[in-house]
Amino acid sequence: MAVAPAESIASLSNDLFYDILRRLDGLTLACAACTCTSFCSISKEEILWENVCSSMWPSTNREDVKILISFIGGFRKFYADCFPLIVMKEVGEYQWNRYHEYPDDWTEAEYYGDMNELESISPSDFVSIVDIKFKEKPICSKVLWGIPNSNGYNGWFYNCPFRIDLLSCADRDDNNDGVVTLSVSDGLPPITSMEREKKDGKLWRELRDGLLLSWIIVNKKIKQSANLASWSPLDGQRHWPTDKDFVFRFGSVLSAKDVLPSQVVQCIFIMKFRVVHTEQEGVQTTLRSTELSMQLEDMEGAHVNGRKSLLILKKALSCRRSTNYSEVLESCLAYSKMQNMLKEEKIRNESRIDTICILSSIVAIMTFWYYVL
Predict the structure, then answer these.
(1) Which residues have C-beta within 8 Å of that of residue 330, sequence separation ≥ 6?
(2) Contact status, residue 29 vs residue 52, Cβ threshold 8 Å
(3) Which of 29, 82, 85, 86 lies closest to 52 in space, CA to CA?
(4) Which parts pass through the membrane (predicted)?
(5) 70/290 Cα distance (integer angstroms)
(6) Domain chopping of the chain, boundaries
(7) pTM, whole model, 2 decimals?
(8) b/e for 268-284, b at 16 or more Cβ within 10 A?
(9) What confidence tens digit (pLDDT) does each residue in 129-158 have?
(10) Of 22, 244, 253, 283, whose CB is crowded by the most CB atoms within 10 A?
């Protein structure tokens, strides 16, 4: 195949270059920008990155979101911040046996974090930009301004477990009242009955392999953003008590240095779907979302309160990121491994304490009866 000489390529118009670059995805566009000065110059056009972001995150099509992205630095910066996922390679370097230790001599500032820093953080500074896809097809886009219920009485938000429930707090400006539905027309396999699904698990596999979640947190004050979700599910299960519920967990490991003794926490996103119709009922197979929530958990599985969560979320916006999804999985697996080690050590310690208590009780009883008799 003949290759055009360099002078022939250089003679092409910028309009043709632009037409070529506007058809590329984000990663390819970034690579193309490194090939020649013409591509580098044209690739700085905001409209190109706006198209890339619009394709990847449909929620960025909203006018209020466009204004927000322009305010924090533009679509090019937004893509560079939010496409790579957060990765914590230092998880295994922390001393896991210190996670459950809260020194008695900690001051209030040490326990709750930097109080001066906390005063500069407001729940209203954060914006959640959420997109759900199934088999690369957008099925839900939501934008949540601020953190719901953060103005509670007497600092309720700051001292209670942090949680954002998108479905119950979503804007009610759409016809389906914030509920996400999936059906055969979206790519689901037809299910004749739940009994059959229990045996072959076809619907479960399609959901596990097809669901994608992006949950971007933006801080308007410091003009930073990051994608906290893992795109693909980290794990999932069927909720057996009803046989019709499917639960999926997305997330990432975030730094909690100088905020919690564990130094790291896990940001967990729970997505639940329930089967509402099967082919046996005379209509196509349909699923409805029942939960989409975000919360932070420490190494012991305890929910982090609102005060500390704000500090952690702010730190997360400047965490290390990677476009290598395997690194993200390794980070999450390392966290799970350390968490399991902590749980096993805690069980062993409790077992030792129980044994000591039982032996002490036996000795006390024997001593009592010795003196009585």
Answers:
(1) 87, 89
(2) yes
(3) 29
(4) none
(5) 34
(6) 14-83, 119-169+178-346
(7) 0.82
(8) bbbbbbebebbeeeeee
(9) 999 999 989 999 999 999 888 776 557 888
(10) 253
